[in-house]
Amino acid sequence: xxxxxxxxxxxxxSLLMCMLxxxxxxxxxxxxxxxxxxxxxAAALDEVAPMPNGIAGAPPDAYVAAGEPYKSNAYDLSQGKxxxxxxxxxGCHAEGGGASGPAFLNGWWRYGPQAVSVFVSIRDGRxxxxxxxxxxxxxEQIWQLAGYVQTIGAYSAKTxxxxxxxxxxxxxxxxxxxxxxxxxxxxxxxxxxx
Amino acid sequence: MNDTTQQTVxxxxxxxxxxAEQLAHTWRTPRTLWGTLTTVDHKIIGRRYIAxxxxxxxxxxxxxxLMRLQLARADNRFLTPDRYDQIFTMHGVNMMFLFAVxxxxxxxxxxxxxxxxxxNIAFPRLNAYSYWLYLAGGLMLWISFVLDMAPxxxxxxxxxxxxxxxxxxxxSDIWAxxxxxxxxxxxxxxxxxxVTVFKQRAPGMTLERIPVFVWxxxxxxxxxxxxMPAIMVASTxxxxxxxxxxxxxxxxxxGDVLLWQHLxxxxxxxxxxxxxxxxxxxxxxxxxxxxxxxxxxxxxxVLALITTGLLAFGLWVxxxxxxxxxxxxxxxxTASSMAIAIPAGVQIFCWLAxxxxxxxxxxxxxxxxxxxxxxxxxxGLTGVMVASVPLDTQVxxxxxxxxxxxxxxxxxxxxxLLGAVYYWxxxxxxxxxxxxxxxxxxxxxxxxxxxxxxxxxxLGLAGMPRRVYTYQAEMHWGGMNLFVSVSxxxxxxxxLLFFVDALRSIRRGPPAGHNPWRASTLEWATSSPPxxxxxxxIPVVTSAEPLWQDPEVLPVSSGLRVDxxxxxxxxxxxxxxxxxxxxxxxxxxxxLAALATTVMLITSIFSPWAVLWGSxxxxxxxxxxxxxxxxxxxxx
Amino acid sequence: MALLRRAxxxxxxxxxxxxxxxxxxxxxxxxxxxxxxxLIWTFIWVAAAVWISVMAVLVVALSRKSxxxxxxxxxMRVTVGGAVAGTAAIVLALTIISFLxxxxxxxxxxxxxxxxxxxxxxxxxVTYLDARAERVFTTANEIHxxxxxxxxxxxxxxxxxxxxxxxxxxxxQDLIPGRENSLTFSAQQPGTYRAQCAEFCGVQxxxxxxxxxxxxxxxxxxxxxxxxxxAASPTNPEQAEGRKVFTSKPCASCHTIQGTSASASIGPDLxxxxxxxxxxxxxxxxxxxxxxxxxxDPQTIKPGNNMPNVPLTANELRAVSAYLAALK
Lengths: 194, 636, 328
Description:
The complex is a heterotrimer.
Chain A lengths: L6 H20 L12 H6 L4 E2 L6 E2 L2 H5 L8 H13 L3 H4 L21 H10 L14 H14 L42
Antiparallel strand pairs in A: 1-2
Helix pairs in contact in A: 4-7, 6-7
Chain B lengths: L15 H11 L6 H6 L3 H30 L9 H36 L7 H23 L24 H29 L12 H33 L12 H35 L6 H14 L15 H13 L1 H17 L6 H24 L1 H7 L3 H31 L5 H27 L16 H31 L37 H4 L16 E5 L6 E6 L6 H15 L5 H18 L10
Antiparallel strand pairs in B: 1-2
Helix pairs in contact in B: 3-4, 3-5, 3-16, 4-5, 4-6, 4-8, 5-6, 5-18, 6-7, 7-8, 7-9, 8-11, 8-14, 9-11, 12-14, 12-15, 14-15, 15-16, 18-19
Chain C lengths: L1 H13 L16 H33 L6 H36 L7 E8 L2 E6 L8 E4 L1 E5 L4 E7 L4 E3 L8 E3 L5 E5 L5 E6 L12 E7 L1 H12 L8 H12 L29 E2 L4 E2 L2 H9 L1 H4 L12 H12 L3
Parallel strand pairs in C: 1-5, 4-10
Antiparallel strand pairs in C: 1-2, 2-3, 5-8, 6-7, 9-10, 11-12
Helix pairs in contact in C: 2-3, 5-8, 6-8
């Protein structure tokens, strides 16, 4: 004669409950959606310390303290993707294949692959045609865009990278592994030597 | 040859006590952890399924209370919009996929083999697998909610909102994969029910002697089999779009946004009948028992069930009346959506006739049925309203529709379900639930439900759309929303009381005999709760109300073995005995296969390679499952 | 009968906003909505009558003493058969009424006013079309229409599915990416009517409203002319400073103000912002104070929307809100 709740499954259920409660404490950083950054933090995110040649450097303390969110947070990456299309980055960079501006898909970064370099490129511009977006985007938006641009040329697929656009297909989606492998660096007008 | 049983030991030679002992031994499930993981007894699995589904009901109810708390006031900031969106999605997904369909299937898993007079459900190991998969899918979804990454796109997850560009992160992937878990589980149970009803009925149970609940579960199972593939295609296409960049729903590359809606609703409309038809089967079981006469118009009721099932596939576009489809096409679906009111009406009138001609005994199950009749008719009538294309252009996606579907789901399915729980609890547990508390439950639920959901009709006509996390004070919806939120507390109290009653009665309810309600169907012919072998001898049926034909004597058949698990296979229409079929022993393989499937499905959310690598353990588990074991049952 | 109806309506309206309201299907001010309101009430009365009859039968069934006679079964069969036939007849009648109603509310109009409405997350882009290119203009979140003239909205979506619903005027129609839908309606009285997005479109679906202002043809022409003109120039130093802030900060990289260097179309067109009654898609009344609050911290007011928190000093905020509040 068995009853409805035998003791063994009850123990299993309570163990599950404990595990659930514990995991709720750590959350999941990749999936978090933070819509609003406190203004002091947002201002602090601007305080990068690039090297004199503008390549690499120290990221802002606030950025490090937050756990370098813009590279791996799914919401920020998808916002970066939206900014990429809204601000006409494809006008010079195409969908990562490069046109008058360098390509991202070949995985070669003229100013280094670090997030700080990409951030500084977008914020302050670069010689030979990259405009400065300092007065056209907020600091957080520039970080979101930088994080997204890095996924285009990533060496391995990122789980939180966005998928394909709801648009005509121009390259493999960012979450395919890896985007970089589809293009070789000698296919494009600007090679590593320049 | 290692056949240790040299002699065939059948039940012909045994007296009743010895027979019961031998059968109990052959069909036993040890009360250990191993027994829990390996059992293939449909009653144990059915109880587990029912209990899990009710846990999900309670969780979904908490979500509803959170929503009502947020909406009680204009411009409220109790929940952030993101959390609210996750909550209303979870509420819908949980209630539809983790509660409503599984609980109906679970009641069938428990009751159908008993009602048709067999020892176990068909494909018992598949049954066990189905439960573990269902549990895994439910856990995956709820863990994602706890981690603040639950799907937030509504329970029907329209693209492009749930697509790769606008659905950031893994939220919609979790939704899509949860669909896979629950739909495979549901398909498995549907297959088992169809085979059980077609091939394992007691001798003499011809088609017109099949209980109406069994008919309703048969029709429901066909609905499951034919509609669930549509949503599996849809959810799989969504995962493919999101994970590997296919273009099923991308208009720029030849895909179509509306493809999603057609695929989803082709499943989605039969889905609500999957939830509703078992409930009407329950009503058709409860009414005859409590008025003391057989159901009026058995043939009409069964044909109405089948017609409803068939028509259910021809209605799906009524969820898409405002997407800009050609008017002639839409009008066809108005006609078919209104037409389904006719078989529903047939059933209602037959029930009314049964009540008219019988002598009602006002126990809790019948009270729930009365609450169902009052409430469901309102829901059905607002359904006729939304079936009209022009009317729907005003009320689609407003609180009017929210009111309508809660009337038909809660009034039309949950009330009969709760009545069925009160009705069959004595059989399942061996104890009665409290009649006194039961009346309070009915009262609180009926009043609380109507006070909560009726005003939503008015809110919808007043312009309040669905799925809004807040509204502005100048809309003047605040008063009515507050009223609804307060009434929802009453509804919640009713459910709380129900859970209290059920949990208390498991240990302390008054003991029940084998047929306390003096009902007519076969499950009441065995003890309460039934022994693990269901019936000492398989009954033989000579009428549609076997236990009323002769209350003292029930003819039985004999000749099944007692040293092996055996049941009787009979023919499709006449239920003439055809063969003795062996039934599988307890096995760990369903659990392991479910574990392998779970790992494969969850990891494939993150990488498509998981489908390849994850199928290897699954293959191993399936090989273990089907490998001939050299047990006597293998000889068939 | 009218008294009874009014009494019911009154008691229902006591806690209910439904019967009169600027976003109510039961308060029609347009030709289509009027037809639909009649249909709604017809269905409600039929449904109420059916429900009351079924409940009456239920009550009698439960309270009568049973009497099982031989003729009983046959009599019940006839009654049930009659009830089913009655159901079929009612259903058929309602279906036919629906068809006729559809034909009535969707008769093709000649020379409608053509307006293109494009849904974005979470605002409405409105473009008034015209055969002459110089008379085409774009605005956002507010539509003005002349009374008694059919208006045809060309509905498209820029991102996800939205739905345009102005219940006082007409039924709703979805805006679907990759599809061109249309909705034709006409207002019969001048007034201000609220429309709201009626298809879940993301985190701020709740705050995606639009105002439809129906006015006399003269008032409409006057409005249209003012919309065609470029933005008002600053009339004092604070507004001039505001324009400078606007064009030098990220504002100009998303918004258009005709006549200045700001000409982006990521966010709503602000050329005649001050001529609108609401900002942020029907969320806040359009005053200088709410403008400033919105610009200062849009993510607190409408979390998750696509306007970022642009850091401005207090002076900059004052200046830019002065400038925008003057853009009539």
